[in-house]
Design a protein that fits this description.
The complex is a heterotrimer of chains A (about 200), B (about 675) and C (about 280). Chain A has about 200 residues and is mostly helical. Chain A has six helices and no strands. Chain C has six helices and 13 strands. Chain C has a six-stranded mixed sheet. In chain C, strands 4-10-9-6-7 form a five-stranded mixed sheet. In chain C, β2 and β3 form a beta hairpin. Classes of the chains: A mainly alpha (about 200), B mainly alpha (about 675), C alpha+beta (about 280). The structure holds heme-A (2 copies), dinuclear copper ion and copper (II) ion. Copper (II) ion (CU) binds next to α8 of chain B. One heme-A sits at the interface of chains B and C.
Chain lengths: ~200, ~675, ~280
């Protein structure tokens, strides 16, 4: 290339603002996380037949419990989104309130999941009982652990909002948290349909 | 208090690892002493350990990789010399439980802690410079990624003296790796080391994808990216897509071992074949994660040292992305012999061999890049030529293994071992050494000694050939891999040649170390010094910066106007006989250093170690430590430090001076 | 010292092995046609265009050519198209579970193979006998192997007879081979299975049908023990003993019981290794 090309401002105008970069990076991370869930889903599907004479999906599913759980999580998505809207408008008190609601719903969700798990374990349907149950506990439990981490994060964020107010970096982190929480919701929808609905039908 | 840890974990009866560990311990103690005596701790802490500068982190990755390559080499030497004297009824000097640990550790260390960090390190160093960015997208995360990788490496090496390492190969196939067949802590070391390092790698992948997609300088459109950035993008996309599978798989095996789950057990409906599928769904993309950036390095070198742009740039981009996509559809070729049925085997065999198309395009385009150029055979180019030749052979044997009926007799043979060393050593290792030689002056301001470099090159070439050519033959003769002793005395001559070969590799490695030492000694020599910042007549943006670049890289973000960003600037300057005008300098914000990375990694290491030995209180404490490290980071209010206009100007003017002088010289000689 | 028997896959002693080898060599030949010129071209181009060569014509502008790109993509594509054909046909013709053709009227001989830690158990259901670490097969008769593992994964491999296949617990794989000429062929595990892996070797004796029948009868009439669940329980314990054993009878259905896990998978290392080793002697 001996001729020097004429300089031309091109369509790429340089790096975008920081919140866009952060959001993009967090999306990449979430894609990775979803792929990890997909692996657990695959594991669950492969092991669905490995019951070793133990209970199958239909025997362990308590649909009412799960229905309430689903309700909690779906509502928490709404409250989480509301917190986001409020944060954008810099109404920090409202933000905190909606965040709190989100967290509480998350805690209820977790409590119900723990209840479900302990019922199962009482009945001898432990993850050690069969490969199917291992897959079940891992898949559902992994989502549960994500919720725990989410709540921890949420608490930390609330403290930060309280201390630091609507600073740019706090806003960035809030929006990342919201992406995370929504992703958990989407994973749950997948879980709910494949593990619970499909499981109780077959 | 200490869980399962007690004195019996120290292999007092095995002199070899103890002596090795003693040696390493002494070396570490000596360097710590030296650092303390010279009072370098403050400098190290401020400038390296807490650094979030991508160049520093890149260098740290490479140092880790070099150390681990040497560790892996020691294992290789032991395997090759042991097998040479373990023929017929002889048992060699390593009993099975020890030998099995060695090949497992060798494979694990070489792939995860030798090759990977080297690749990631070079990407870290060069990518932001090539795209015209001041740092990666998430500098602190970058530091954490590095330190997490280092944690994994540390854990693997701790297993040498406290406990044992896995005896299950570099990929711990279930059910052999389940508690019932591997009750010791070896597999646990593997699992925690890989889990921690794997998370580090995943985060680094996220970081670099974001960097390449979002942080390019103005005008640096995707189709103006240097080839190395494209292949890095491909590799990091593969990391984001593949490493979560590894995380999940390792987690499942961990739960099997710690909590009695039944993912991969023989009992209670577990499915060991699922392990094999999942580990290769990650494992196959992994080998392309390693080779793609190496392809990128070679692309840079072929073009630079031929004095020509890369031939068929768009084709190369297409071929890279082609490989990225197809690499997810071939994992089954690692177990054609599982009896999946003719249709499945054939489909995966064909999918596998299709990769040869993308790779072939690259090979041919590199040859056409040299065509019509003027080729300079400095060491980076020597390694690249050696790669070009050996990789065609290794790729060809790979395609041979992709033919199921051939694989039915070659699977798990020494032929397979030869194949993958042929592509990994001839491709990845040659690539990283070429890249190391190529970017070294950029990182440190002086070149590596050419004479020692050439000596190292020839020794490595001899060693490589002598080890792996006989290995192909032995594979055809029916010798399987992972043999603690070899039964056919007729193979002895080959085994001797291979043992001699690995000694040549040792000599080559010694020469590399010598090269480094000599170059550091003579760094102020006219011969090695790189005042200009452009020692190879480079074409990409990093060569427009001084060596080493200032921590903020670019005084002003470049405005890119063509495929070879720096080359066109350079041409223009030479044509006009003067440098581009001094820009209007602006204040720059750069991220502040933080110890978050090393804190997180420190506690993660503790978590890993405590889990291995069932010291549950320590797990809790360290878990809290990780959390607090995060919170501590989150609580900082000032994330950036300002670099004043003055400082920027001073740095840039200092960098321009030698270039102006060089240009003046050219003008005087009438070469503009 | 045991005599080593050739295990070369380039010296086939059966139809499957011969086909494996032919495909291997054909595929290699096809690729060498491209690979060798590529390597030579790389060396020549690099050398001719070396900076010091005054005779070379430089052309810095030669960075793209549609014609060259076309060739560059189509050469490997064509090779792979051709190779893909070999792969497709070969995979089907040499599918391990596909019976080997022999002269009509010859029934295949079934051998059931169980990989143990660390030796091989061969059960001959028709003859009702079993052996350890010694495989005797008739020449010229299709061999139908059914394989499973008592514990971890292994691969059953007699290189001179051809294809290998995995043996896995809880399932049965199938492999069809044929020994074309009498001889003694090395057999082994090709998949790492732990400490005793290097010694998981056996010798395959390919003998004429008459000799095989004679041998089977001899074993059946011998005073050796018979193999039932009890003996199997001892056999499946981890051991690095490389001895060859024969059993004058094998309990019918033993193999299927192992596959169906009615006989539980063998455990790994015993708590106190030396004690059990002593007990076994
Ligand atoms: C990146 C991967 C990598 C690399 C580089 C190597 C390099 C080598 N390997 Fe290895 N190997 C594996 C990955 C690798 N290997 C894997 C995955 C396995 C399978 C394990 C298993 O069975 O599970 C394996 C198994 C394996 C075996 C076991 C075979 C068997 O199953 O029986 C043997 C035996 O000889 C062997 C030998 C060698 C040799 C001689 C080298 C030589 O090429 C080494 C030459 C030395 C170098 C390439 C290092 C150069 C040093 C530097 C660059 C540092 C310089 C320092 C400074 C400048 C300061 N390898
Ligand atoms: C950097 C690492 C790397 C790379 C780049 C490759 C590249 C390839 N590998 Fe390899 N492979 C490994 C690392 C790598 N491999 C490892 C580590 C293992 C074993 C792990 C273990 O079991 O422990 C393995 C195992 C392995 C197997 C499993 C064998 C078995 O277990 O029985 C197979 C089978 O298909 C295979 C195939 C291929 C193919 C087709 C390529 C292709 O990408 C090669 C393409 C390149 C070329 C073909 C050359 C250039 C092309 C031309 C000049 C064009 C003209 C040529 C033709 C058209 C043929 N590899
Ligand atoms: Cu069992 Cu494949
Ligand atoms: Cu592969």
């Amino acid at each position: 290339m001996s001729a020097v090309p004429t300089p031309r401002r091109s369509e790429w105008a340089g790096p975008p603002a920081k919140d866009i970069v952060t959001a993009y990076g967090f999306w990449m991370f979430l894609i990775g996380d979803v792929i990890m869930f997909a692996s657990f889903f695959a594991g669950y599907a492969v092991l669905a037949g490995g019951r070793a004479g133990g209970p199958g999906p239909a025997d362990i599913i308590e649909l009412p419990n799960v229905a309430v759980q689903t309700l909690c999580l779906l509502t928490s998505t709404l409250t989480c989104a509301l917190a986001g809207v409020m944060a954008e408008r810099r109404r920090m008190a409202w933000t905190q309130l909606w965040l709190l609601a989100t967290g509480l719903l998350g805690v209820i969700f977790l409590a119900l999941e723990i209840r479900e798990f302990s019922h199962l374990i009482e009945r001898g349907a432990t993850p050690q009982r069969s490969a199917f149950l291992s897959g079940f506990f891992m898949l559902v439990g992994c989502h549960g652990v994500h919720v725990v981490a989410g709540i921890l994060w949420l608490g930390t964020m609330m403290a930060q909002v309280a201390v630091r107010g609507p600073k740019a970096y706090v806003q960035r982190r809030l929006s990342a948290f919201m992406l995370y929480w929504h992703a958990l919701d989407i994973v749950w929808v997948g879980l709910f349909s494949i593990v619970y609905i499909w499981g109780s039908i077959t | 208090m200490l869980g399962r840890l007690d004195w019996s974990a120290i292999p007092l009866h095995e002199p070899l690892p103890l002596a090795a560990a003693g040696g390493v311990g002494l070396a570490v103690a000596a360097s710590l002493f030296w650092i303390t005596k010279r009072g370098h701790w403050g400098y190290l802490w401020r400038e390296w350990i807490t650094s979030v500068d991508h160049k520093r982190i890149g260098v740290l990755y490479c140092i880790l990789a070099l150390l681990m390559l040497i560790r892996g080499l020691v294992d290789a030497v032991m395997m090759r010399t042991h097998q040479a004297v373990a023929v017929g009824d002889a048992q060699g000097y390593l009993p099975p439980d020890h030998y099995d640990q060695i090949f497992s550790a060798h494979g694990t260390i070489m792939i995860f802690f030798g090759a990977m960090p080297f690749i990631v390190g070079l990407m870290n160093f060069a990518v932001p410079l090539q795209i015209g960015a001041r740092d990666v997208a998430f500098p602190t995360l970058n530091a954490a990624s590095f330190w997490l990788t280092a944690s994994g490496a540390l854990l693997v090496n701790v297993s040498l003296v406290i406990g044992e390492f896995a005896r299950t190969g570099w990929l711990p196939y279930a059910p052999l790796s389940e508690t019932s067949y591997s009750p010791g802590v070896g597999v646990d070391y593997y699992l925690w080391a890989i889990q921690i390092a794997g998370v580090g790698t995943l985060l680094s992948g996220v970081n670099l994808v974001t960097t390449i997609v979002k942080l390019r300088a103005p005008g640096m459109t995707m189709l103006r990216l240097p080839m190395f950035c494209w292949t890095s993008l491909g590799a990091n996309l593969l990391i984001v897509a593949a490493f979560p599978i590894l995380t999940a798989t390792v987690t499942m095996l961990t739960f099997d071992r710690y909590l009695g789950f039944h993912f991969f057990t023989n009992e209670a409906g577990g499915n060991p074949m699922m392990f094999v599928n999942m580990i290769w769904a990650w494992g196959h993309p992994e080998v392309y994660i390693l080779i793609l950036p190496a392809f990128g390095i070679f692309s840079e070198i072929f073009s630079t040292f031929s004095g020509k742009p890369l031939f068929g740039y768009r084709s190369m981009v297409a071929a890279t992305m082609f490989i990225v996509v197809v690499s997810f559809t071939v994992w089954l070729h690692h177990f054609f012999t599982m009896g999946a049925g003719a249709d499945v085997n054939a489909a995966f065999g064909i999918a596998t061999s299709i990769i040869a198309v993308g790779t072939g395009v690259k090979i041919f385009n590199w040859i056409f890049t040299m065509y019509g150029g003027s080729v300079r055979f400095e060491t980076p180019m020597l390694w690249s030529m050696a790669f070009l030749i050996t990789f065609v052979v290794g790729g060809m044997t790979g395609v041979l293994l992709a033919v199921p009926p051939a694989d039915f007799v070659l699977h798990n043979s020494m032929f397979l071992v030869a194949h993958f060393h042929n592509v990994i050593v001839g491709g990845v290792v040659f690539g990283v050494i070429a890249g190391y030689t190529y970017w070294f002056p950029k990182a440190f301001g002086f070149r590596l000694d050419e004479r020692w470099g050439k000596i190292a090159f020839w020794f490595h070439m001899i060693g490589f050939t002598a080890v792996f050519v006989p290995m192909y033959w032995l594979g055809l003769e029916g010798m399987t891999r992972r043999l603690q002793h070899v039964y056919d005395a007729g193979w002895t001559p080959f085994l001797y040649v291979m043992a001699a070969g690995v000694l040549a590799s040792v000599a080559g490695t010694a020469a590399l170390i010598m090269q480094l030492a000599v170059s550091i000694r003579d760094r102020r020599d006219e011969r090695l010094r790189d005042d200009l910042g452009d020692p190879w007549d480079g074409r990409t943006l990093e060569w427009g910066l001084p060596s080493p670049p200032p921590f903020f890289n670019f005084a002003q973000l470049p405005d890119v106007s063509g495929e070879e960003a720096y080359w066109s600037i350079k041409r223009k300057a030479i044509e006009q006989g003067e440098l581009p005008e001094e820009p209007d300098y602006d204040m720059i914000e750069m991220p502040r250093p933080t110890p978050t990375g090393i804190f997180v990694a420190f506690f993660s290491t503790l978590i890993g170690f405590a889990c291995i030995w069932h010291i549950w209180w320590l797990v809790m404490v360290s878990g809290a430590g990780v959390y607090l490290a995060f919170v501590g980071y989150a609580w900082r209010d000032v994330h950036e430090r300002d670099v004043s206009v003055d400082e920027v100007r001073r740095a840039d003017q200092a960098a321009r001076a030698p270039r102006a002088a060089a240009l003046a010289r050219l003008v005087k000689e009438g070469r503009t | 010292m045991r005599a080593a028997h050739s295990a070369s896959v380039l010296r086939p002693a059966g139809v499957v092995a011969a086909a494996n080898r032919d495909i291997l060599l054909n595929a290699l030949a096809v690729m060498i046609v491209v690979a060798v010129p590529t390597i030579i071209a790389a060396i020549i181009v690099a050398w001719w265009f070396r900076a010091g060569n005054a005779k070379a014509t430089r052309n810095e502008g030669f960075v793209y050519s549609g014609r060259v790109e076309l060739v560059v993509w189509s050469i490997p594509l064509l090779v792979i198209l051709f190779l893909g054909g070999i792969i497709w046909i070969g995979s089907h013709r040499l599918d391990p579970s596909r019976p080997v053709q022999a002269s009509p009227g010859i029934r295949p001989l079934t051998v059931e193979v169980v990989s143990l830690d660390w030796r091989w158990l061969f059960i001959y259901p028709e003859q009702g006998i079993a052996t350890v670490n010694r495989l005797v097969v008739p020449v010229g008769r299709p061999l139908r192997f059914r394989l499973t593992s008592a514990s971890v994964m292994n691969a059953f491999f007699v290189p001179r007879l051809g294809s290998m296949i995995y043996a896995m617990n809880g399932m049965a794989t199938e492999l069809n081979l044929l020994a074309a000429k009498p001889g003694r062929y090395a057999g082994m595990s090709a998949h790492y299975s732990g400490e005793g892996f290097s010694d998981m070797r056996f010798i395959t004796h390919a003998v004429p049908q008459r000799a095989f029948d004679l041998w089977a009868e001899q074993v059946a009439r011998s005073a050796t023990p018979s193999l039932g669940a009890g003996n199997y329980a001892i056999l499946r314990r981890q051991s690095r003993d490389r001895g060859e054993y024969v059993f004058r009878s094998a309990q019918p259905g033993l193999f299927d019981a192992i596959v169906a896990q009615r006989l539980a998978p063998a455990g790994g290392p015993p708590a106190v290794r030396s004690a059990t080793d002593a007990e076994e002697k």
